[in-house]
Amino acid sequence: MTQETIVVGAAATANITASAASICAGEIAMLTASGGSTYAWDTGDNSASINVTPTSNTTYNVTVTNSNGCTDTDQISISIFSNPTATATANRITICEGESVDLSATGGNTYAWDNGAGAGASPSVSPNVNTTYTVTATNSNGCTDTDQISITVNALPAAMASASQTAICVGETVTLTASGGGNYQWDNGLGTAATATVAPTANTTYNLTVTDSNGCSATDQVSVNINCSTTPTNVRLQVLLEGAYDTGGQMNTNLTALIPNNQPYNIAPWNYNGTQNITSTPNNMVDWVLVEVRAANDNTIAVERKAALLLDDGSVVDAAYAVNNSINSVFFNNLTSGEDYFIVVRHRNHIAIIGANTVALPNTSAYDFTQAANVLDANSQVVDFGDGNVGLFAGDYGSNGVITFTDFNGYAAELGTTNQYMEGDFNMDGSVTIADFNTYMPNASVIGLDLIRY
Ligand SMILES: [Ca+2]
Ligand SMILES: [Ca+2]
């Protein structure tokens, strides 16, 4: 009998530890086996430690073999938490610089945004440049997902409002100019053009809004101030012209389209060299008139003259009215405020008149030449319209202060002209016709006052 010695080697004891028993889908768990010298995982791996990324709950087995060739097995289960699905949106993805946008995230329990958007499901942000925001959504298991939303930021237009002058005298006009591209909108009723003409009578700030092709807007403003060595004296008066006169204190505006932009009294006999002009004719303008202010103590002395606009209701206003229809007076620069004066009204084919009374200037209620009592020698110097109003006699071709056969000759020489601004157009309708003769004829012997005749 032989005896056999059986050597019993130490048994292997397999053990697996995991970096985490539960992980989020997509995460790595490190499994570490011990208890032997070689390892065989059911994943096919043979190292003591393996990294696994299960997508569902998974049990991993390992067979451990020690140096004696003894084996043992162990297993470990890794459970998977589902991940949230993050979704980032925004109430708008294109904004103008300075605007804000509301971001929104869904899919998690808590959220964290980058680029300073903070935490929360719906932060409000105001990026100054194009920005992509990434949100990390975390669910109750602590698993996360990310999503992104990109916001496009359009720069603002370079709005610029400028003025041809920023310090003016009352009655002067200023051109405002907008730049910065796109569309323009001025306040103060100035419309949408790139340029606007204004004649403020008080310090005024003009606001401009510029909107570019992206719809982004910016504003600028320019102020025009009254800063003048002289303070104007506002002269208000009311006067009607025969020929243009209709009824009820109103004149027609048949001549409006033909009225020159520059005042027409720069020729003989007036030789008035004022620079009054308009860039567009107000549709209620009847014609230019020449207003003269005379001294109270000597009504033969003309203190100052000014060409002005006669409107269809008889009011006489400064040329600046053409760009500022809130103006209701004529601005004189060389009168002494509070002094009394006589007012003279001249028109290029009518008999001039002078007030019967002096008036303290500036006057707040218009000196009313439509009333005979206010006209010197009204019984011979104005025509009575029969409706309570009086007006200047038409028919003084050449404006020398007398209506004679010479005036007829002037008319006759122009007879037949149409659509022109003519002296022989006594009824002021743009044409010289027999109707003008009919206007002239009843006045053919009128003689104006020596005092104001040329
Ligand atoms: Ca005449
Ligand atoms: Ca006519």
Can you walk me through this structure?
The protein has 454 residues and is mainly beta. It has helices at 378-381, 405-414, 434-440, and strands at 15-18, 22-24, 29-34, 38-41, 49-52, 58-65, 71-81, 87-90, 94-96, 101-106, 110-113, 124-125, 131-138, 144-154, 160-163, 167-168, 174-179, 183-186, 195-198, 204-211, 217-226, 233-235, 237-238, 245-247, 250-251, 285-295, 302-311, 316-317, 330-332, 340-346, 353-354, 359-360, 367-368, 382-384, 390-392. It is built from three helices and 35 strands. The strands form eleven sheets. Strands 26, 27, 28, 30, 31 and 32 form a six-stranded antiparallel β-sheet that branches. The chain is rod-shaped, with a radius of gyration of 48 Å. One calcium ion binds next to helix 2.
What's a concise summary of this model?
By secondary structure, the chain is mainly beta. The protein has three helices and 35 strands. It has helices at 378-381, 405-414, 434-440, and strands at 15-18, 22-24, 29-34, 38-41, 49-52, 58-65, 71-81, 87-90, 94-96, 101-106, 110-113, 124-125, 131-138, 144-154, 160-163, 167-168, 174-179, 183-186, 195-198, 204-211, 217-226, 233-235, 237-238, 245-247, 250-251, 285-295, 302-311, 316-317, 330-332, 340-346, 353-354, 359-360, 367-368, 382-384, 390-392.
